[in-house]
Amino acid sequence: MSPSPLLDEYRWRGMLQDLTEGTEEALREGPQSVYAGFDPTADSLHVGHLLPIMGLVHLQRAGHTPIALVGGGTGLIGDPSGKSAERVLLSLDESRANAEQVHVQLEAFLDFEGVSNAARMVNNLDWLGEIGLLEFLRDVGKHFPVSIMLGKESIRRRLEDEAGISFTEFSYVLLQSYDFLRLFEDHGCRFQIGGSDQWGNITGGIDLIRRVAGERAYGLVFPLLASASGVKFGKTEGGAVWLDPSRTSAYRFYQYWLNTDDADVGRYLRLFTLLGQPEIEALDRAVEDRPHEREAQEALAEDVTRRVHGDTGVERARAASRVLFGGEVAGLSAEEIQDIFADVPSSSLPADRLAGEGLDLIALIADVGLTSSRGEARRGVEQGGVYLNGERV
Known about the structure:
- This protein has 393 residues and is an alpha/beta fold.
- Helices cover 47% and strands 9% of the residues.
- It has helices at residues 5-13, 23-27, 50-61, 92-106, 125-128, 133-139, 146-150, 153-160, 167-170, 172-187, 199-213, 250-258, 262-272, 277-289, 295-323, 334-340, 361-367, 374-382, and strands spanning 18-19, 33-38, 65-70, 120-123, 191-195, 218-222, 235-236, 239-240, 387-388, 391-392.
- The strands form 3 sheets. It has a 6-stranded mixed beta sheet with strand order 1-6-5-2-3-4, with helices on both faces.
- Helix 17 crosses helix 18 (374-382).
- It starts with a helix and ends with a strand.
């Protein structure tokens, strides 16, 4: 029996957590339509979304058709999976605006035109916004025994918590299952992928397709990621690392990946880049033999940043990184300079101190605390130890 190229790719990259029975055999039948869902709970995706995005990238490269479903309808409800509290509900206008941004960001990863298996973007608000409550309860709700819903991990965990779960979020599995049914009916989609916290929602959709259409559907899930130190992937002291350049600059995005721990970089290269197995294994050896060179981290940062921010973003991020080690400041914008030095020791002073003829450099050095006195500042200049914008004074 021939292997599935897509699942082989997932396996060696460490992307495959679990799959439903018959998935591998069904993928061997030929090109398939496969979907992943993205809730538009913010106006940008973040690096925590990269694993399902890369899952779609690999399946498109393997000849399958990716469908990115943006939850314009379910985003108004909130998914309880992996959550310990109710989400803040979005307005309809917020949901629509966020959905448009999701599409823009996915275009950096998927081919939406120009190929035979072009990716599709759908919004579940198109059908969830039209269906009436009585119709939904009659045609969908009757297929979901409450006992089975109560047994789903995401719901059971919330019920055990003091805050409980609202009926709104309790109904989420019905809505996502209906999404799968609609994609099956409208696009012939028989496969859903997602994080392992989506297992219950995915199997709910598979069961609904079986009950309503008498057909088989399939699902596979990716692992939920944490760093080797146990920190949830994508979380930093400054919050989420966004894919929108206006929320996370190319420099900060690049630095996030460049600062990857040696214990994590090999895994991240497999999960988030398109580098081949020989290249990644060579970088693994570089981590073992020459960890101080951080060759693997640079390859990771360059590959992911280029996909999100383009070639220009990579070059500007590199230039900004070099500034911290004495590189040229000229050519960087005020915003970039502020971004670079936001996390390093710095001093500030009122802008009016630099008005008119400006401020004497010796006074400036002492006033911001670089030296304990103006005499020490003057000696530093005389001895060639003071640099302004990367140039020796």
